Amino acid sequence: MSGFWQRSIGLISLILFSAVLWPIFGAVYALLFFSVVMLWSIIQHMRHIAKLEQWLQHSDHTAASIPEGFGAWDDAFAHLARYVRTHSQSREQLSLALQRMQRATSAMPDGIVILDEVDRIEWCNPVAEQHLGIKLDLDIDQQIIHLVRQVPFVEYLAARKYSKPLILNQTRHQKLVLLLQLVPYGYKQKLLISRDITRFERLETMRRDFIANVSHELRTPLTVIGGFLETLSDENDANPKLNKRALVLMSEQTVRMQHLVEDLLTLSRLENAQNKIKEKEIDISTMLHDLQMEAESLSNGHHQIKLNIATSSRLLGSDSELHSAFSNLVSNAIRYTPEGGEISINWEIQDGRGLFYVQDSGIGIEPEHIPRLTERFYRVDSSRSRETGGTGLGLAIVKHVSNRHQARFKITSKAGKGSRFRIQFPAKRIITPSDQTTQAVAK
Predict the structure, then answer these.
(1) Its pTM surpasses 0.70
(2) What is the β-pairing status of strands 111-115 and 121-124?
(3) The domain 280-435 belongs to what CATH superfamily?
(4) Are the C-beta atoms of 354 and 314 separated by less than 8 Å?
(5) What residue segments make up the domains of the chain, in order of their start?
């Protein structure tokens, strides 16, 4: 039986009962009975409509809050409760799916911005906020070009060439270099994906600079050697003094190229992950005494070289690598300390960790240069560095040796007052005299 006829049974029964009352009590009483019952039915319907209206306006629209009904309204409210429960379940599932999606995109290393058909922000993850300098709470429904105003980005957005990414320099926010890509989806919506490529751009810049610097460093001595060879090959202009001077200069430039190649090979070995460090117990005291003699020979009496050894503790590490690092720091101090200056070589234990440092009274370094000193070929004063015989790779070697020994390399300096270059070794690499005694007894 259809729902219409089920709901019509009451009305049909009322009509039939009133028809039976008609011949018994007369038409007036029959119609009066019919009218009273219909009025009561109408009042009940109006009361249920009022309950439904109140539920729609003021309720939290949950199945538990649906009012109770009578008769046909009981069935209607029951159907409504089932619909609300189904709708609530679907909404909860969609909400959970949205939360999972937001958590997933928030965990991504790339920035994600959802744009509508007119490029207004609908949603973005925290990474996109950092990359593009936007705030979701404040900037939702704002056009993206009102917040990211760089001309290349505005042109890229207007061109609608989604197949090509855009490299954008965000100078306002930590000088980031971003790779931006628009991806259309849905109904005229777009995803704006941002990726931080600052590190890769810096690596590419370092690679280009490295090639350019190596070429420049090798070109100069090769030009000198080539020029003198051309002069010497001219038999018509034989000059013994000139020939001797040419041989001396060619020898100096050859040594310079040899040092450069040796430093490049050293860096290559240090950067090779498969080149495992060959560790042994090193007598730092003996090494530093040898280093002092090398320094005095390099200084040729122009500086005061002091050696301060405050501990007999030894160090676990690579003898050749540490000697190279220490030697680079000492030779740098000699090159950049004026004649008559003082240079100290120091070895001590500080808070259980080994500390090696070189202190000089040299020309010092401006603060803006210090973070870049360990880059290859970076020089504060290029002409002065070449005059003093530096290759520009010494501090890069020191940094790599320190990293391979889990040590911290730190530079502190004041312009005109000197510099301190320190390497702090972890406690696990320090062998104290008591440890040495224990090992000797064990043997």
Answers:
(1) no
(2) antiparallel
(3) Histidine kinase-like ATPase, C-terminal domain (3.30.565.10)
(4) no
(5) 3-97, 108-196, 204-271, 280-435
